[in-house]
Amino acid sequence: KKAKRAKKNVLKTKIVVRRLPPNLPEEAFMNACKRWIGDDVVDYKFYVPGKLSQSKGKENVFSRAYFHMKSMDAVVAFHQGFDGHIFLDSKGTESRAVVEFAPFQKLPKEHKNPDTR
Amino acid sequence: PDRTAIVEKERSPMELYVRKLIYGDLNKKSLDRILKQLRKLHWKDEKIFKMVLKIFQKVWKIKYSNIHLLAILASGLHRHHSDFGVQLVDSLIEEIRIGLEQNIFKHNQRRIAVVKYLGELYNYRLIDSPLVFDTLYTIVTLGHEFGRPARERFCPMDAPNDFFRIRLCCTLLDTCGMCFDRGSSKRKLDYFLTFFQMYIFTKAKPPMDVDFMVSDTLEMLRPQMHIFASYEEANEAVDRMLLEQLQSVQGPDGKVQEGG
Q1: Any idea what the Cα angle at residue A56 is, between residues A52 and A61, rounded to 5°?
Q2: pTM of the shown model
Q3: B121: domain CATH number?
Q4: B224 partner at 20 to 30 Å CA-CA among A86, A89, B164, B192?
């Protein structure tokens, strides 16, 4: 049933880590998963900090992170090691990190000529 | 009152200027000029970059009829700042996903705006068709057991009397579905429409407006298509279709299980 998702030609090696605590600093996150994301296996990292809501009427925004791995093995290792990782904040709220293929696989490219202003 | 006065948000002149361009000036005629102005910004400055990104993410703040204009701008900026385009699309996909997970009624309009935007980004070549199909399938399957909605399995995230996901799909299909008229994307759309029909049958009887929305979309995309009469018929068709796909893929399918 998952067949429709499995791409046959290109391997999906850009992954997203979702549902991270809204107030998790980038360093704390990178520290928590540094075992799997050394420079030898990852060539693109991007962290998007979330936001704690200021009013009751709004929801928190989770933090998330994107990685591009150099090999499928690294993706599998990271998924096995980190999917479901639990973060605890000072108030005891648990957040369970989710590791998935990023739906959008493109990466930023180097621009040959920087845009002339 | 015992509440403190609401403090007005302070914005930098640069932010006020970009907001004026997007919220005030944006129309068909000013498009080129605005794109030029945006390209002149200090993109290396992280603050500016983030500020512009935020405005481009919050597509629900602009007029619905202007969404395609924002998509044109995004696409134009992506050509020179692909990190901007990539972060924008990643965020929009997340926005759609979190919308499905949280399913908060008051966000319905904004969720419609975001899928419309995604469709326009396809029309203006920032994203490709697999991402559109991926999103369509995510909309109809997220939270459903075995990645397949079924009448006999209740899904708390997407209850039988909740028709909003149907609206999301129709909006996305109305925006860019007509581009899937040849080759593999044509076939993929046929597959999806079969699946989509089955999905609709897993629901309670839809209200008339939803019903019309669906038939308008199907009529526009595939006027000749066979419309299933019952859940059983649609379900069987999906079974056959998945089997066919499995056979054509052959070999190992699913890799790491997605979702959690």
Answers
A1: 30
A2: 0.91
A3: 1.25.40.180
A4: B164
CA gap A46, B259 in Å, rounded: 21
pLDDT 10s per residue in chain A (117 long)?
A: 344 444 445 688 999 999 999 999 999 999 998 899 988 999 999 999 999 998 888 899 999 999 999 999 999 999 999 999 999 888 888 889 999 999 999 999 887 777 776
User: In the numeric block, which tokens belong to residue A111?
Assistant: 């621009």
Distance from CA of A97 to the nearest CA of B (A): 9
Domains in chain A: boundaries: 11-101
Fold of A11-101: Alpha-Beta Plaits (3.30.70)
Could you say which of B80, B110, B127 is where a domain stops? B127
Contact A15, A78 (CB under 8 A): yes
Q: Does a structural domain hold residue B22? A: yes
Q: Which domain holds residue B173?
A: 152-248
Same domain, B17 and B113: yes
In whole angstroms, give the CA distance from residue A29 to residue A34: 8
Residues 39-78 of A with CB under 8 A from B: 46, 48, 59, 62, 64, 66, 72, 75-76
Distance CA B245, CA B232 (A): 20
Tell me which chain B residue has its CA closest to the CA of residue A57.
B106
Domain count, chain B: 2
Q: Are residues B31 and B81 in the same domain?
A: yes
The amino acid that residue A103 corresponds to is P
| ipTM surpasses cut 0.85 | yes
